[in-house]
Design brief:
This protein is mainly α. It is built from 11 helices and no strands. Helix 5 runs antiparallel to helix 6, helix 5 runs parallel beside helix 8 and helix 9 runs antiparallel to helix 11. The chain is elongated. The N terminus is likely disordered.
Amino acid sequence: MKSGDKKSGVKKSKRSVGRPTEKMGIDKEEILRIALKSFAEKGFGGVSLKSLAEKTGVAVSLLNYRFGNKEELWKKAMTLVGIKIAEEINDLFTVVDGIDGLEKLKFFNKKIVHTSAKHPEFQQIIVQEVFSNSSRSTWLVEELLRPIYSNMENLIAEEIEKGRIRNIPQAHITSFIIGSITTFFSRSYLMQKAYGIDSFSKEAVDAHAEYINELLFNGLLVKKE
């Protein structure tokens, strides 16, 4: 035994085999948001754990340890935002519980407009994934999109039953409402180049919310004879 070791009398603790040392001050949410932006920009196939490690400054081994494989990391990144959106919408419907159904639907539409502007990466990834059948698209629909859309779909069904909204199948109504809202943000570059509009400016977001409700309800409401 060396004199230095004998003098200290302190045993050095051994790190568990296979468990990478964690970077000091690692921010999981920040990593997930960086990952979300990367997946939105490049698509799932265009992102690797190595490229995310370079962007976040976190070793690939630690990303694997903390988040699992690339698909699990993708799911965690989408869940981070998806759960917040679902909670915000549930809170909205709690607040507006006692008001007229059509007014509730207008509030929901405005909420989705502002949510889409706030989380454009989330919407962009949805556009990429739900075009075809895959394990990720199935997971998205079951775990995130159904909870987000359920309040709206139930409300539409109630108003159709009352005879206040035209009896159009839910698939068409949901597609029309969500599509017309989110396209303005998912194609923000087109809006800027073709029309000189910043889709994410407060003025554009507020105006989009008003136009959506005006156009939708002129077409959805049952016309009185």
